[in-house]
UniProtKB/TrEMBL annotation:
Alphabetical list of Pfam families matching this protein: Hydrolase (PF00702)
Designated name of the protein: HAD-IC family P-type ATPase
UniProt cross-references to InterPro entries, sorted A to Z: ATPase_P-typ_cyto_dom_N (IPR023299), HAD-like_sf (IPR036412), HAD_sf (IPR023214), P_typ_ATPase (IPR001757)
PANTHER family: ATP7, ISOFORM B, P-TYPE CU(+) TRANSPORTER
Organism of origin: Candidatus Acidiferrum panamense
GO MF, one annotated term: ATP binding
Keyword Phosphoprotein: no
Positions of transmembrane segments: 215-237, 243-262
Main location as per UniProt: membrane
Gene3D superfamilies named among the record's database cross-references: Calcium-transporting ATPase, cytoplasmic domain N, HAD superfamily/HAD-like
Subcellular localization, as worded in the UniProt entry: Membrane
Keywords for the protein's UniProt record, in alphabetical order: Membrane, Translocase, Transmembrane, Transmembrane helix
Keyword Transmembrane helix attributed: yes
GO biological process: copper ion homeostasis
Amino acid sequence: VRAAETKGIRLAEVTEFRATSGGGVEGRVGGERVAVGTERFLKEKEIPASSAERLYEAFGFDGDFTATIVLVAVNEKLAGAIALADLMKESTPQAISALQKEGLRIVVLTGDRKESAKMVADKLGIAEVRAEVLPEEKGEVVKQLQSESRIVAMAGDGINDAPALAAADVGIAMGTGTDVAIENAGITLLRGDLRGIVRARKLSRATIRNIKQNLAWAFLYNLIGIPVAAGVVYPFLGWLLSPMLASAAMSFSSVSVIANALRLRKAPL
């Protein structure tokens, strides 16, 4: 839409608009019935659709293709096709490699064609691929992994990823993605860089370690300070704290905990 506006192309008004999650969209444009979506979506509408293989040949792709074909039908007849391809970010292989080195099991979960998904997974060194999955099925896959006593983190950026993001133990949305995905996720990577997941894991471990340090320090501090302030050791050692010193010591305990927590700002990520 933005590209059409920048080129000065006037957008026609659409009526009777209807979207099918994981399939496509349809509506009436200028009095004509238009449907845009996957091959399966058009077949469900009983619209004869050319097979994906023949369309790839028409686009001039060889056997190693990662594009997804979106079909366009007008008045129940195939009118054209659009090839869509996601460009892999340079940082993605590095992020996947770092996560695998940490012992994480990586699964590609996508609604794209099996061939396209397998090609991308092979480039990233990912062995497990589940392709041609509908949005609601993504959530079922997450629940299946959870039933195996696994902690599941799901990263996604589209409307179709929302059910899985909501079902996962940790939902990770891309800041460059849709609002629906962001709303259903617990973490949002503002720049959409998967290396942010690696940094988030490092930060979470550092945070838990910091919390344990603060709890241990506060427990030890109070274990020693409270008996002294209460005069328990006075008969034996002659130690006694005045209320003023006890108040200052308590404040120092809070300050020390806060100071330790502030060290997270310099944690190596």
